[in-house]
């Protein structure tokens, strides 16, 4: 699945290299919750590593964008349905993948690693045929909204 030589799918027997993004909740997810989420089929986590540290990680899970949600916001409805063929606009929901967690080691902030990984995620899910995926969604912490806007996301 990886185009980068050091993107690794986290497994129960894998030893995570040192990581600290500066956010205790995101650090705790990686070290305490990510493997359990995979076992419970809730999310899969991928690590971007170098020899001595984890530079970044992201977790992904299935999601959908419901038409009902879009119908309640007229402007968004226009954006949402713009690229969908007319015959498919009556679907009740559209397949999506959600980025559940996304973090970059604090020593690598502002080095474009986050944007590089975001481009990687987009290529995997939007440009390949591994699964039907019309959208990528994310639940973001308030201080990272700017990052997602810069990377082409919009508010739902």
Describe the structure.
With 156 residues, the chain is α+β, with helices and mostly antiparallel strands. The protein has a single domain (7-144), classed as 3-Layer(aba) Sandwich (Aminopeptidase), CATH 3.40.630. 32% of the residues lie in helices and 24% in strands. The chain has helices spanning 24-39, 67-71, 74-82, 113-126, 145-150; strands spanning 7-9, 44-49, 54-66, 93-104, 135-138. A 5-stranded mixed β-sheet has the order 1-2-3-4-5, with helices on both faces. A hairpin with a 4-residue loop joins β2 (44-49) and β3. The longest helix is centred in the N-terminal third of the chain and has 16 residues, at 24-39.
Main features:
24% strand, single chain, 5-stranded mixed beta sheet, Aminopeptidase, 5 helices, alpha+beta
């Amino acid at each position: 699945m990886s185009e980068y030589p050091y993107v690794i799918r986290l497994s129960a027997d894998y030893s995570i290299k040192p990581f600290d993004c500066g956010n205790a909740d995101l650090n705790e997810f990686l070290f305490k919750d990510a493997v359990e989420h995979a076992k419970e089929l809730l999310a899969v986590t991928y690590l971007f590593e170098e020899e001595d540290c984890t530079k970044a990680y992201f977790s992904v899970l299935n999601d959908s964008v419901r038409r009902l949600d879009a119908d309640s916001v007229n402007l968004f409805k226009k954006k949402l349905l713009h690229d969908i063929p007319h015959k498919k606009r009556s679907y009740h929901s559209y397949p999506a993948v959600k980025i559940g967690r996304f973090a970059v080691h604090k020593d690598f902030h502002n080095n474009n690693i986050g944007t590089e990984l975001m481009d990687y995620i987009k290529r995997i899910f939007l440009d390949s045929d591994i699964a039907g995926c019309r959208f990528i969604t994310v639940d973001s912490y308030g201080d990272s909204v700017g990052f997602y806007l810069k990377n082409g996301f919009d508010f739902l």
